[in-house]
Amino acid sequence: MQISCPHCSTALDVTQDHLGQQVQCPACQNRLTVPTEISSPSGSQLLSHPERTGWEEGDHANVHFGKSLLLGVGSTLLFLGMMVPLKATRLGELFLMRGWVNWVETFLFAWGLVILTMKWKKNQAQERAALLNLFPDHLGKEIHAANVGSFIDNIYAAPSTLRDSLIINRIRKALELFESRTDNSEVGSFLNTQSDIDANRSSGSYSLVKVFLWAIPILGFIGTVMGLSVAVGSLAMADNTDPEALKSSINSLTEGLGVAFDTTLLGLILSILMSFPLAAVQKKEDETLTMIDAYCVERLMSKLNDSKTLVGDELIQQANSIPELVSSLARAHETFLVNLNESTRQLTYNGELIQDRLEGHRRVVEGSFTDAIEKMSQTSSEIFLKSHVQLERTFENINHGIQSINQALKDLGEKGIPNEAKKKKGFFFRA
Fold first, then answer.
1. For residues 179 and 149, is the Cβ–Cβ distance under 8 A?
2. Which domain holds residue 2?
3. For the segment 410-429, what is each residue's pLDDT rounded down to a tens digit?
4. Whether residue 393 sits in one domain with residue 248
5. CB 42 within 8 A of CB 182
6. How confident is the model at residue 44, as a pLDDT?
7. Do 166 and 195 form a contact (C-beta atoms < 8 A)?
8. Residue 179 shares a structural domain with residue 232
């Protein structure tokens, strides 16, 4: 069940145990009383999605350089001002009377603490954002292509004070990628890449503090060299015959040695003191990043469903009630049967029509084939008759020709051969 905070209008998810109880809003930290009865949102409210315009993301790891510098300078001046009444003591003398090296060491130490404090507050804001319910139950047990827009809209409804956080921005980008691609593997790869980017950004944000941690003892060693240089110089310039000059030289020697040892001592102490909050803040930020990674894997990836069909729970959830779902299924079944009967009748009619057309085509083909055979038989008979008559006429003509030749030979035999023809015995004859 979901309620709205009356102070900041943040959407909060509550259970039956919270009804009638006072709870604290994770966004504005104000207390509110949960009503004893909460009406579930209607379907029309769930389907109305506001326009998503996005927002500009800030740097979640690095602090503002100018702001931290000003706070560091102010903290240093405030601390040195507090040491003025203690100037006569050993502590006041250590910070105020040992030269510029101790002042710079104090400034770097104060600046580093300001940066770590600002990063600690940023990390607390990241932890508060993890308390928001980004996956309310009334939007669905699973996230799929049909309801991913509702989950994205729920993230856009987060309060502005917590919206620009690592966990909200990472989940928003993952859901928008799932909305456009609907692929769990691509979302998983994106989350792994984003986790590496955030971890590298967090690790790089401590570079300036680590430089301070390195520079403070180095400055102590520089103060040591400067103090020894002053001490040795004052001893070399002293006149051993003059007691007053020798006394002044000894005073300069002890002052130089005091500067040398005090600068090194302060640098080593401040570097040790800075190491502990640096390790604590870095460890806390690493734990927060690990918590965000685990949240994305356990709460987001386990809900993503990139299949094209809805599961049974989602189908039941989309129905207003079980009887309505059963009635819808019955109407769908009845419609299916009516459509099936109509399709069967249409198929039977089409089958009979095709059978009639096939029978007609068969009769046409048989008639055409019979006519063709009859015409071919008649034509063949006529051709054979014409050929027989022509052949008989040819034989008669040949017989008549043979008879004419026989008659000619007979006539030639009866007339005899002429005498001149008898004298010639051949083509080549003798005279």
1. yes
2. 1-38
3. 777 766 555 555 454 554 44
4. no
5. no
6. 41
7. no
8. yes
